[in-house]
Amino acid sequence: MPASPSLDKNTEFARCLESNKIAALAPFHWLALAFKDISRAPILSLIYGLVFTIIPASIMYLVYEAGTHLVILPAAVAFALIGPAFASGLYDVAWELEKGHKPTLGHSLHSMFRNPAGEWGFAILLMVIMIVWMRLAALIHALYPNVPNPTFEQLSAFLTLGSIVGGLLMAAVFAISAFTPQIMMERRVDIMTAVISSIHAVKMNAPAMFVWGALIVTLVLLGFATGTAGFIVIMPLLSYASWHGYIAIIKTKKARGYE
User: ∠ CA 140-144-149 to the nearest 5 degrees?
Assistant: First the structure.
């Protein structure tokens, strides 16, 4: 009986796309290129910026209505989970600019359905992670001191555990979502290939990804500091920069440049 041919797991199942090694400060260059994209497509950038502003504005309203700061941490993580799933339209605008085309709202909206199985699967994955986080946040809340005006020492266990769990979860989501939406939109690959490739790219470029993550956190905090008005510019800026990061890191068969 002839032996069955061995399977190449790198091609038969979820593949891992090759990545380039980039400089640690490369994310600053991505932001500079993103500003150019905004200037080339100002109306579309404004439209998406307004849409993205609604999400953090809703979080701020939730905090105000709840009358407690306890919803800030889970809401912030939820924002980090939801954001990448709705950035496909802006990735399409950047992609159209890369190809020398004139981007349109209709084309960018259609991009959300270019790889429906992968993109909606990714959205569901983020939703599951968000639900897990909300359950963990509820459990962590049990450590909150049941006394009025608790001291920092009394809050230490609650803050420490919440920060560790939230930080680990956000780091995992960052690695998963850094390049997954861009890969699935352009290459029509399965979700596992995109996720594994994104994690590998982040791991391979840890210094640059640390800088990129710090820039994202800084700009998001700036957005909240401006009463969410800053997100009108910040979210398109981060989305376009993410596309430039994808171009710089994920290898293609033919060299591409988008300056």
Answer: 155
Cα separation of 83 and 76, whole Å? 11
The CA distance from 87 to 79, in Å, is: 12
Other CB atoms within a 10 A radius of the CB of residue 7 amount to 9
Using CA atoms, how far apart are residues 122 and 191, in angstroms rounded to an integer? 7
Compute φ and ψ for 250, nearest 5 degrees: -80, 120
Burial of 113 (0-12, 13-18, 19+ CB in 10 A): exposed
d(CA 106, CA 88): 13
For tokens 């939109």, name the residue. Answer: 185
Cβ atoms of residues 67 and 7 within 8 Å: no
Q: Is the dihedral of CA 141, 147, 148, 151 positive or negative?
A: negative
Name the residue type at position 59.
I
| Rounded Cα gap, residues 182 and 180, in angstroms | 6
Specify the DSSP class assigned to residue 19.
B
Contact between 209 and 25 under an 8 Å Cβ cutoff? The reply is no
For residue range 141-199, list pLDDT tens digits in order: 777 777 777 777 777 777 888 888 888 888 888 999 899 989 988 887 888 899 999 99
Residue matched to tokens 């210094």:
207
Which token pair is 160?
């420490």
